[in-house]
TrEMBL record:
Keywords: ATP-binding, Helicase, Hydrolase, Nucleotide-binding. This is UvrD-helicase domain-containing protein. GO terms for biological process: recombinational repair. SUPFAM superfamilies: P-loop containing nucleoside triphosphate hydrolases. Residues 1-279 form the UvrD-like helicase ATP-binding domain. It comes from the Bacteria. Pfam families: UvrD-helicase (PF00580). PANTHER family: ATP-DEPENDENT DNA HELICASE SRS2 (PTHR11070:SF2), UVRD / RECB / PCRA DNA HELICASE FAMILY MEMBER (PTHR11070). It comes from Rothia santali. ATP binds at residues 21-28. GO terms for molecular function: 3'-5' DNA helicase activity; ATP binding; DNA binding; hydrolase activity.
Length: 569
């Protein structure tokens, strides 16, 4: 790959530098090149490469295949969560409490962590709360779109009840050494507030790293910025790249993050304005969606593609699979090249014609059957299968016999004589040995589970609490597969940092309280507008914008007003 002068300046910079760039500008490629070239070398210290997306991490790891030493100590390639857990929270927690903490990405992977209060018909995930050491606040924006209305409509005393219970459970887990990314950040804040400890941690990091490269810096939370500040203060060189318009994780923080205050401490490199990824029409749509005044120029291999942006209006999401297939074929693209994306995973799934991965059932037999079904379904994508494996693991833990059910994961593994790996393997063995659940009655599936005596002995679980759903039939939503597709699909957040030859961006019905289309048409900044911007900018040659009929005319007028070439599907 021949790097541009602006990219080379980033790859070779000798002092702490921040570079802003448009989508597809080759930020990932450039920082990985820098990580490999390492212009600032040190005989003993390493370089860290931190990213919020797996795209940069995978790319860096792939590039290290020919030079495996680059991946090894003292270097680091991984997420900011991994960095915080490994170098800051893990060692400090161990030193203070003499327990090595278990880290989870989110509470959804932690058994028995749901928040339930008698008399309230709303089972909440701890992930939907912002929790500090002495308060919990339910954030309706974090609740999946399908349940958000219920969250908004909770009465004050119901909300307070849930928040009190959330805080109680959270404290219990954290005290026993079970930490998620958000809980680790709460711990981190308190560690760094202690000046002596801060000094020790800063010196340890400076002894280990000569430089830390940060991708997608716009997605840093308040606590992430504290870490970058610490590194900078103790003399670690910081190279940061980002695109402020791609900031789509503000909902994680309870306070606005002032990343700019930190970035002002770095030298500013030349903005990367050339978009190597997308065609001219897609770049024009991305420019229209961007709230700032910068304009990116198509300069990559799609610069000759003169495909307009395809506009499609829909009423029912269920009709979208057929409409999208037709629109893709009409433009002479293959369905295999199409990625259907939406803000909500459920919207993307339905628009792609993929079978249901969720049901609102809290029946553990139904949950196990669904997870097992997804693990064995070749049409599911990797993320769905990993989520299903986690659900199965979690359910096995929740079915634990009395003396293990309430243990934290590391104590549980110790009692059973297992490692994380052997535990996962044993759960997968259950899945491999089970017959297809939806070909039989729930009671037969339950009877089959009762025969897994060896597994029950090894993993200390019991099938006793499992009950067949009413009428001994599975919920319809799990068994009625669609006749088309499914097309490949993803949330916009999960596709961040990646690209696809053709993208169908699904825009849902307008919401009275405001939405991305409203922000875009009113010319104001907003997270939902940025989510649309990130989505559209994943497309290389073909962008289909499928907008619900309630917002379609606004989308069409905005694009046409901004001079974006469009065609109706
Ligand atoms: N100098 C270059 N020459 C040719 N292709 C390039 C160059 N730099 C980047 N690319 C290509 O452009 C595409 C986008 O690159 P990359 O993913 O690094 O961009 P990015 O800035 O990280 O994008 P985003 O922030 O939108 O995820 C990739 O296909 C990459 O291979």
């Amino acid at each position: 790959m021949k790097f541009t002068d602006a990219q080379m300046a980033l790859i070779r910079a000798e002092i702490g530098t921040y570079v802003e760039a448009c989508p597809g500008a080759g930020k990932t490629q450039s920082i990985v090149q820098r990580f490999v070239d390492r212009p600032l070398t040190h005989p003993r210290k390493g370089v860290g490469l931190i990213s919020f997306t797996n795209a940069a991490i995978d790319e860096a790891r792939a590039r290290c295949i020919s030079e495996p030493a680059l991946k090894e100590v003292p270097n680091f390639i991984g997420t900011i969560d991994g960095f915080i857990n490994r170098f800051l929270v893990g060692p400090t927690y161990l030193a203070r409490r003499r327990i090595s903490p278990s880290f989870y990405e989110s509470w959804s992977a932690v058994p028995n962590s749901h928040v339930k209060v008698n008399g309230i018909q709303f089972k909440a995930s701890l992930d939907w709360f912002i929790i500090r050491s002495n308060s919990a606040r339910l954030i309706p924006e974090r609740v999946p779109i399908e349940l958000r209305k219920v969250a908004f409509n909770l009465k004050k005393n119901q909300r307070l009840g849930l928040e009190g219970e959330a805080l109680r459970i959270w404290k219990l887990f954290v005290r026993r050494g079970t930490l998620t990314a958000s809980a680790a950040r709460v711990a981190l804040q308190s560690y760094l507030a202690d000046s002596e400890r801060r000094e020790q941690l800063g010196m340890l990091l400076a002894d280990r790293f000569v430089e830390v490269i940060v991708d997608e810096v716009q997605d840093c939370s308040e606590e992430d910025i504290l870490v970058l500040d610490l590194l900078h203060e103790f003399g670690v060189n910081i190279i940061a790249v980002g695109d402020p318009d791609q900031s789509i994780y503000a909902f994680r923080s309870d306070a606005p993050v002032n990343t700019n205050n930190f970035l002002r401490k770095l030298s500013v490199g030349e903005r990367l304005n050339g978009n190597f990824r997308s065609s001219p029409a897609i770049c024009a749509a991305v420019n229209s969606l961007r709230a700032g005044s910068e304009r990116d120029e198509p300069i990559g291999r799609c610069v000759e593609v003169n495909e307009p942006v395809v506009l499609l209006s829909y009423r029912r999401r269920q009709c979208l699979p057929k409409l999208l297939v037709r629109a893709t074929r009409n433009r002479n693209f293959a369905e295999d090249d199409l990625m259907v994306i939406a803000h909500s995973s459920e919207h993307a799934r339905v628009a792609a014609g993929a079978p249901s991965t969720r049901s609102d059932s809290t029946n553990k037999l139904v949950i196990m059957a669904r997870a097992h079904h997804v693990i064995g379904d070749p049409r599911r994508n990797g993320l769905e299968r990993v989520a299903a494996i986690r659900t199965l693991e979690r359910t096995i833990r929740e079915l634990g016999v009395a003396d293990v059910v309430n243990l934290n994961q590391s104590d549980y593994l110790e009692v059973c004589g297992l490692s994380e790996g052997t535990f996962r393997e044993a759960c997968l063995r259950i899945a491999a040995a089970l017959p297809r659940p939806f070909d039989m009655k729930p009671s037969n599936f339950r009877a089959k589970l009762q025969t897994f005596k060896a597994s029950q002995g090894q993993l200390r679980w019991t099938s006793q609490p499992l009950r067949s759903p009413r009428g001994d039939t599975w919920p319809d939503s799990l068994t009625d597969d669609q006749d088309i597709g499914p097309l490949t699909h993803s949330t916009i957040h999960a596709l961040k940092g990646r690209q696809s030859p053709a993208v169908a961006l699904i825009i849902p019905e307008g919401r009275a309280e405001g939405d991305g289309v409203r922000q875009w048409c009113d010319g104001i900044k907003g997270e939902e507008r940025r989510v649309l911007y990130v989505g559209a900018s994943r497309a290389e040659s073909l962008l289909i914008i499928a907008a619900h009929e309630s917002v379609f005319e606004f989308v069409e007028a905005q694009l046409n007003g901004d001079g974006v070439p469009t065609v109706l599907a």
